[in-house]
């Protein structure tokens, strides 16, 4: 989308979400469950945990280093699968009967040395303070985004898509729609007019179900009890609804598709509305800037929009492995800025420290808070208390910008 999107008279934009029972999301939740368990034992644990699941099998892989302690990973895997709702052997995958294979090694000593002692510290140009000493856990670029389309400062297509999948899980777990099973998806297409949401053009809902229920019942229930329970009535103007358009969704979860950690990066972020650096989040401790810097970039973007400096903000930050200071910080406001671009750069530089150690300190990221983010998005979560969603710098930015 170009920076002149506000001039476009009308266009369509689509985002999707998946439920917690989607195979990829099963893996994300297990990866972050392992991370949380390790951080409980050692807040400075180094964790890179990948998971794959298929019919009857979960494989947990990765590199983990902790000072001391033990995590019963197979039990953690089974408990996670149980909480998602795979409790019946009839689903073809359940927490009791699935096999669990664990292949964990320690973090590379080369990576560990570069991260623990940043290039700046190795050259003795700065003090050995932990914040200044920590180097980035990898190279790469991370992106954060915010816009004023919703109270959560998220793109509306992504916001509604997540709320629909959360609603699918709610009516399943409550027993309101007892024929639903854990695997499901949503997709929302919004019609925009001059950069503002005008109406919901299309809603797509697909959810795994038992064999006994007919398609008409599923369609009626999901439109009335899911879609219309979430989407504001004034946005449902000539809206198209598709419910299980393949016609049948009995086979689902890991039986239908192999799952893998980190394969839903746009579902985890902004639904394609913003650019993406390519790095996934789940299973990574906060020294991995794929995760912590993406959270920080969202924090920066959200505070810029909340302050009134711009209506939309996309923040890109990049790093070199083992180096503390960011290589670059780039801010795009899509011609919605109310102060100059140069002033925005100054505001970000003065109000945010984007070195990995400072991000971990300022957002208090060495806590076991990650499993809760592994389904339904890492951003715009009004149901969770996430530090990168705070707009604690907005007032100071507004004051400094003279708004």
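^ Assign residues to that structure.
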């Amino acid at each position: 989308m170009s920076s002149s999107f506000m001039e476009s008279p009308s266009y369509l934009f689509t985002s999707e979400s998946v439920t917690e029972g989607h195979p990829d999301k099963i893996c994300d939740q297990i990866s972050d469950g392992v991370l949380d368990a390790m951080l409980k034992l050692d807040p400075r644990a180094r964790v890179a945990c990948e998971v794959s699941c298929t019919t009857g099998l979960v494989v947990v892989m990765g590199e983990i280093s902790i000072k001391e302690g033990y995590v019963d990973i197979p039990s953690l895997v089974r408990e996670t699968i149980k909480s998602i709702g795979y409790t019946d052997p009839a689903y073809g995958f359940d927490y009791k009967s699935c096999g669990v294979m664990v292949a964990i090694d320690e973090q590379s000593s080369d990576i560990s040395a570069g991260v623990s002692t940043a290039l700046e510290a190795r050259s003795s140009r700065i003090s050995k303070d932990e914040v200044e000493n920590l180097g980035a856990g990898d190279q790469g670029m991370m992106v954060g985004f915010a816009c004023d389309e919703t109270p959560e400062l998220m793109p509306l297509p992504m916001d509604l898509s997540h709320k629909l999948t959360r609603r699918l899980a709610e009516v399943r777990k409550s027993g309101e729609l007892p024929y639903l099973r854990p695997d499901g998806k949503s997709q929302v297409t919004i019609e925009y007019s001059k950069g503002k949401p005008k109406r919901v053009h299309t809603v797509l809902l697909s959810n795994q179900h038992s064999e006994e229920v007919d398609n008409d019942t599923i369609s009626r229930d999901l439109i009335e009890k899911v879609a219309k329970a979430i989407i504001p009535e004034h946005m449902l103007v000539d809206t198209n609804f598709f419910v299980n358009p393949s016609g049948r969704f009995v086979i689902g979860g890991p039986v239908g598709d192999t799952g893998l950690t980190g394969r839903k990066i746009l579902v985890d972020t902004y639904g394609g509305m913003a650019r993406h650096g390519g790095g996934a989040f789940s299973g990574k401790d906060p020294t991995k800037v794929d995760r912590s810097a993406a959270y920080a970039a969202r924090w920066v973007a959200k505070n810029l929009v909340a302050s009134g400096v711009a209506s939309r903000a996309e923040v890109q930050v990049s790093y070199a492995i083992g180096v503390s200071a960011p290589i670059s910080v780039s801010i795009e406001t899509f011609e919605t800025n109310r102060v100059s671009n140069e002033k925005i750069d100054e505001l970000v530089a003065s109000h945010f420290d984007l070195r990995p150690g400072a991000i971990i300190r300022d957002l208090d990221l060495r806590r076991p808070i990650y499993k809760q983010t592994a389904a339904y998005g890492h951003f715009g979560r009004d149901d969770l208390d996430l530090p990168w969603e705070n707009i604690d710098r907005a007032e100071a930015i507004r004051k400094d910008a003279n708004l």
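The chain has 13 helices and eleven strands.
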